[in-house]
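Example record

Each entry pairs one chain with its bound ligand, 26Q.
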Amino acid sequence: MYGSVPGVCGDGSAALCKEGRIHCFTTMKERKVGIMTQMFDKEKFKQQVAFKVKALCRKTIEEATPQQIFQAVCFTIKEEIVDEWIATHQTFSEADSKIVYYMSMEFLMGRALGNNLINMGAYEEVREALEELGLDLNVIEDQERDYALGNGGLGRLAACFLDSLATLGYPAYGCGIRYRYGMFKQEIRDGYQVEVPDNWLKHGNPFEMRRDEYTYEVKFGGHIRSELQKDGKYRYIQEDYESVLAVPYDLPIIGYGNNVINTLRIWDAEAVTTFCLESFDKGDYRKAVEQENLAKNIVEVLYPNDNHYAGKELRLKQQYFFISASVRAAVDRYKNLHDGDVHKLYEKVCFQLNDTHPTVAVPELMRVLIDEEGLEWDEAWDITTKTCAYTNHTIMAEALEKWPIDLFSRLLPRIYQIVDEINRRFLIEIRSRYPGNEDKVEKMAVLFNGQVRMAYLAIVGSFSVNGVARLHTEILKNQELKDFYEMMPKKFNNKTNGITQRRFLLHGNPLLANWVTEKIGDGWITDLPQIAKLAPLANDKACREEFRRIKRQNKERLAAYIKEHNGIDVNPDSIFDVQVKRLHEYKRQLMNIMHVMYLYNKIKENPELDMVPRTFIFGAKAAAGYRRAKLTIKLINSVAEVINNDPQVKDRIKVVFIEDYRVSNAEMIFAASDVSEQISTASKEASGTGNMKFMLNGAITLGTMDGANVEIVEEVGEENAFIFGLSSDEVIRYEQQGGYYPMEIYNHDADVRKVLNQMIDGTFSDGNREMFRELYESLLNSWGGGRPDCYFILKDFRSYADAQKRVDEAYRDPEWWSKAAMLNVAHSGKFTSDRTIQQYVDEIWHLEKVTVNMDEAE
Ligand code: 26Q
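Structure tokens for the complex follow.
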């Protein structure tokens, strides 16, 4: 992949290049590294790192701190990849490639260094080089902060997609926001979650590149004056507005072994200083300060809500800020390559909207085409609706984005005019399609009841609408978006989510990754379905033994982490039963901990109870304002405190809450898991992607028939999973009937009653009967409005406990267990994001692969 600049250091000798820069990676055709022909020059790499440490910190390697070494290593790598990065973009321009712009408020990238080294094919070599310097790559990797620019599934999906796009060689930009503070760091104090700001840029970001030359001004507020021009057209002029500058920072997204380097472009906000001076001159000091504040506030922090909409003005500002800049940058790039003519924009540009959060891209593109490019409405609409595509990630009613019209029109006056016109024309369409049916108009209008319905705007303005798992897409078509599906069935399609095996197996679980490669070769790294070649080995006793030993080592690694962070001793021979994901009522962490309470009661009733020792591991962040979610964290920690310290339990149960669950520790957790808890109320989890990461790492799913679990079970077979609970049809039927009566279950099931009573009798709260009352009430009474137990926890409890019993029994047979676990790995091929991306390409984006040939690069 590297440094193959002919005549400079392409002979493998790794000489000092003309520019005085040392190439550490030089082409040598004789040796194959992965799928690349290249050689890594260890000595030069070491020299470079030493030089960087000296230049950056005035220190020798021996004197430098691990953080300083980390910085030096990253800068060395950045220099090494810059030629490929440039060449990739040259290739896009020369081939006039169609580009997808993945528009997302969130990119949950995790750490870059390890992943970059892996995709460059240099991980092992760099590890050795550092070792020779007396340094441990793991320690250096631990110096890097996670790029936590996302909440959970949706943000991590965006990150996996970027990895797959680059690896498959498709031209793509990720477009997002350079939040000053990402997802908060979670600390647990006295069992409660405390949110600590995530100052991820404290030491700077060695991989980023500021691109001042692509700065845009983004305008908010004011009012619109229209001016009739000589040609009879109107010009729309925004006046008395506030504005900020959007300044892009580019991050390299390195494809695995193919020289392709795509870009994640995240926008920072800066005050418009010229304007400030002008204002200051005019004595409008207040306005100047306001603009400074606007810039600072816009990118200050990621909203830490997952699957929950909060109608905050600042959030809408964030949305328009990064969308306006991204859309204009894409249009300008296109114009530069096409003589300024935007009529065929859609042939070379696709905007994929990651949920409704970037939906203002639809009216913003209309504004650019009409106001700036002078197109007529119909032309502009034709282009826009051929350029935009929308992905839906949730059917949870509380996650649907709706903006009050007064707020929306005040902040984005011109955009609102355009949305109003989109709506007016759409209503005409509805009325001509369904004459006299005003019900349809109410149900489908973009503007209704004083609100802008963003999902409907996204659907109307896009040529494609997709769900993220088969079941989810069916629910969209048949329930949530039924009217739209009936009116425009061709737009709707499914793209079942996937994950990148390069991070979640190759990097996160090196022991298993090496073993898989030893058994079936390394084709799986870029072609995951090849992992099916492992299936026959599940019948081989010796292979199962090897597989068990690897899982055991990974469990020891996690046990050591738990010992260090929680001070708890956990037994690596116990079942590691894991639920790690955002905390949300529909994900039912409460049901999980209630089952733990139930098991504890069984032990107390029968101290000799025979059960396989189990370690229940939780990891979850709760949105800062989500009371019930935060109280559930406290309950988990309180139950842990009691159970872990009860000698009668005799270590049959341990409960561990892993603080600050995030991408970097997730990689280690998946690798060490036996049981994957995927227990959402059926119909509520659009897809889930953690479920796939567990499967890939040989954990067995304990889950409901929800989201992508359905497809996981289809691949691996029901006999290799533990499935329980109501089906989505049953849940939906109950909901249509107005719910069910949890009190009946409370009255008839003594075990469930006992667990519920323990929430209000002080068993887990030092006698405090009020601490967990809200949770108790949420299950039994309509406390705080709404239906009791609207996530069917009591309804599914027995079925869940039965499935847990089956887990206990199955684990007693290590041969059965390791075979089923291996079959889970072997049948995970469908769930690579490479497959998902290929489907987006074939059915939505229609991109062409590029090859970046460094031998021809100048
Ligand atoms: C909206 C408005 C204001 C503030 C925040 C938000 C907001 C932020 C994040 C709303 C939703 C989200 C995140 C949603 C999400 O992560 N959905 C998940 O997407 C995954 C990838 O498709 C699926 O696997 C999960 O099932 C789905 O829950």
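Residues 140 and 558 are 19 Å apart (CA to CA).
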